[in-house]
Amino acid sequence: MEFGSENEKKTLYGWYSEKQKEVINRKLCYLNSEKKEVWVTEVSHNKNSPTGFDDRVFLGEVLTRVFKTKEEKEDYANAVKKFGESVRDLCKKTK
User: In the chain, which end has fewer C-beta atoms inside a 10 angstrom radius, N or C?
Assistant: First the structure.
């Protein structure tokens, strides 16, 4: 996923960890660069692993967040209200 100004585009990478999913009790769906849905427990602009979970698997570049439930869409809308438009840049809505 690239966002920001033309001079400041950043790629977003995804990881999955079953241990992390147990700790945070959630996983997120994204489209990868092949337009396939992948489940992640963490995303970062840093290609090097962002957390210390020893079972994490690097899933590569992720492009767009996919909302699976009404609650996910509402949580996203609340985050935009709380943190501003920068959240919208990090997680583009899909229809």
Answer: C
